Amino acid sequence: MSFGAFAAESPEGVRQVTAEALKVAQEALSQAKAGEKDAALASAKLYRQKAKEITGGGAGPSLSKAMTAAKEAASDLEAGNNDAAIEKLTDVVNRMTVINKETK
């Protein structure tokens, strides 16, 4: 079990992992906007790993949609469709911003 997965079992751990997932999603979006395909792809994949560690709270459906959008963004980046990836990563950041604010 990774430290992050263990940490996400407590309320503080959930807050920490949620904030980390938001930060990584923001990095992926910035990298995609800058045309840094490989970095954005790595960050999108890292976001999905972080998001899987988030448990509890009311994040359920919104988190699931954000994770799906991140997976689709990674596919778009791999296919060279940067504009579609930016759109999806923007959705991820917007959803994670709300989840982060609502995480208690």
Give an overview in words.
The chain is mainly α. It contains five helices and no strands.
Pick out its properties.
mainly alpha, 82% helix, 0% strand, 104 residues
SSE layout and pairing:
Blueprint: H1 3-7, H2 11-33, H3 37-52, H4 60-79, H5 82-102
Helix pairs in contact: 2-3, 2-5, 3-4, 4-5
Report mean pLDDT, rounded to a whole number: 88
Q: Helical residue percent?
A: over 70%
First and last CA, distance: 24 Å
Give the low-pLDDT segments: 1-7
Brief write-up:
The chain has 104 residues and is mainly α.
